[in-house]
Structures are given as C-alpha cells and as structure tokens.
Specification:
Elements: H1 2-25, H2 31-63, H3 77-88, H4 96-117, H5 122-159
Helix pairs in contact: 1-2, 1-3, 2-5, 3-4, 4-5
C-alpha cells in the first residue's frame, strides 16, 4: 500500500511539473479541466513509474539466452522515495538537469537487484534499465504531445 501511494504521489508530482506550466501559458483553461488533466496525468505517470522494473525485467529476459527463474524485479519504498523527489524537481524552472541526475540514480538503484537476480553483468543490467526507462519515457512523451494537440484543437474549435 505504501509503495502504491508513493508511486501515485510521484506520478501526480511529475504530472504537476508538466501540466501547471501549460495551464499558466493558457489562462483560459478552467480549474476543473486542469484538475482533471492533473489526475489523469498523475495516474499515467504513476503507471509508467510502476512499469519501469517490469519492462526492465522483460528486456533482461529477452537479452538472456537462458530463461530466468527469479520472481522478477520490483520497487521498494526506499527506491521510490528518490523517484518522488525527482518528480518534485520536474518543475521546469527548478532544475531539469538535477531531475535527470536523480532519475539516473533511481535507475542505478534498479541495476543492483537486476544483476543479482539474473546472469547479466552490471553493464548489461544497466543497459536494460536505461533502455526500459528511455522507451517508457518516449512513449509517455508521445502521449503527452498527442494530448496537447487534442486539447489545443478543442480550444480552437470552442473559440471559433
């Protein structure tokens, strides 16, 4: 339960870092719409954070020649706490570089358990973690851009 709450808070915080600057640039957005986008974005971001270890484990199984028999890879509250801090720092003016450094640190925290659970070396495990994180990041960025385009089109239609 604690883990789910931490992941959800990290997701909402990450979404706030993306949505609030958008709301400031578009003063015509209603508060309920911003709140709805924040909740939806928080759930999506939280799900992406939750999927990172699973995606990493899946990539590791694809890389390995022999199937693994371990239970998989998952988050612990100690690993999610820096992720929550990283999400808080997602606000564009508070330091995107620090945000990236914290994400790399959180990803490095996944490398150790993956290395212990598989026959991958440290570099192979780090590659799987990085590829999974980058793939999920690209996917969620594509969804963000799609949502922005759709919402911009709705604003133009309602204003015309």
């Amino acid at each position: 339960m604690t883990l789910a709450v931490l992941l959800l808070l990290a997701g909402v915080s990450e979404a706030a870092g993306r949505i609030l600057p958008l709301a400031v640039r578009r003063p015509g957005m209603s508060r309920p719409r911003v709140a709805g986008l924040l909740c939806a974005g928080g759930l999506v971001e939280g799900a992406v954070f939750a999927l990172w270890p699973l995606t990493t484990w899946t990539l590791a199984e694809l890389v390995l020649s022999s199937p693994t028999t371990g239970a998989g890879l998952g988050w612990t509250p100690q690993q999610v706490a820096p992720l929550l801090l990283s999400a808080v720092l997602a606000f564009p003016l508070l330091g995107p570089l620090l945000h990236l450094v914290l994400f790399v640190g959180v990803g490095a925290g996944l490398v150790g358990p993956l290395t212990a659970a598989t026959d991958l070396g440290w570099w192979g495990a780090a590659g799987c973690v990085a590829m999974a994180g980058a793939g999920l990041g690209i996917a969620v960025e594509a969804v963000r851009r799609l949502v922005v385009r759709i919402s911009a089109a709705e604003v133009r239609e309602s204003g015309a």
